[in-house]
Amino acid sequence: MSPKIKGENLYSRSFVSRKWTFLLCFASFCFGIFFTDRMWNIPESNDMARPSVTEAERLKLISEGCGPKTKEVKRDPQALFGEVSKTHNAIQTLDKTISSLEMELAAAKSAQESLTNGAPVSNDVEKNQLLGKKRRYLMVVGINTAFSSRKRRDSIRTTWMPQGEKRKKLEEEKGIIIRFVIGHSATAGGILDRSIEAEDKKHGDFMRLDHVEGYLELSGKTKKYFSTAFSMWDADFYVKVDDDVHVNIATLGETLVRHRKKPRVYIGCMKSGPVLSQKGVRYHEPEYWKFGENGNKYFRHATGQLYAISRDLASYVSINQHVLHKYANEDVTLGAWFIGLDVTHIDDRRLCCGTPPDCEWKAQAGNICVASFDWTCSGICRSADRIKEVHRRCGEPEKAIWKATF
Description:
Blueprint: H1 3-39, H2 53-63, H3 77-117, H4 123-131, E1 136-144, H5 150-157, H6 165-174, E2 176-184, H7 191-203, E3 206-212, H8 218-232, E4 234-242, E5 246-247, H9 249-257, E6 265-271, E7 301-310, H10 311-319, H11 330-338, E8 344-347, H12 358-364, E9 371-372, H13 383-394, H14 399-403
Parallel strand pairs: 1-2, 1-4, 2-3, 6-8
Antiparallel strand pairs: 4-7, 5-9, 6-7
Helix pairs in contact: 3-8, 3-10, 5-13, 8-10, 8-11
């Protein structure tokens, strides 16, 4: 074969080989694209699986309200009642905790105000503050008195109010604190205030208030007494009594103990007298129009000779003392503070017995009175002279105090 023909054959073969190579490469490329499109689907996560067509249709039916109804779970009514009861108890516990914190805050605030205003603080309070604790007493008895009532105070000291070491023993062993309650005169530091300071130095049985004394200021004095007593002593009950009333301390303590576990207790001889609109008469109420039409009666409230309130009510007075309204009559004022609250009113007629022979007959029948006075005088008539006779005939023996279990 000639060299020319041989070269042409080689060229022809090379050309054909290139052609097939190109076609093969092109076919491989197309097949690769097709294969990649069909097989390289990105797998979905197991947690985010795409719902199938059937699942999508089912979800659509359910959303339109056409899906299968789920079986309602029936719960035991007793179990539901138990859960509700547990929730209610938890709320009550939380409420008590909040109330306790509010009372502690009020006590601390009142004590701070007393120190800031220069009001005296008892030795017991100072001792407990140094020890970082505050003792709980049974009751604080505040005897409302005036500058002119020295003879009344002395008559009480010689009858139903223990003196000296006996009074201290009564506080330490029985948790009963008794103090005469008085503010200061319009001219602070004058002869009236100095006379009280000398009397207190001798007996040590006064509780001084940051309050200006005056008959028309009795409502304000009552408010100041409860808030100050609450800040000084932590007690179950706070009692207010007038200095012309005879009191049997042991019987009073036994009476209050019966109501110790009740919240928000207001104890006294409950009454509802007429609202007096006439000027110049005793017990006139200048704000009579707030109680409705003429001739209306007051709401139920304890008579002012002696009444007691529980610790949480004393806390309420202490916390809200700056916004509590004062009416002309002190006993009405106290009742007004509680009329809108969830308060238990306890009407105990032994807190308002008459003088002999009334209290004497009751004592002989085994029903010893807590307090005795004459209604005609709103206290014992001529109490400085007659209270010894009342105590002799109606008073409990001194040993009754020490035998009493509170």
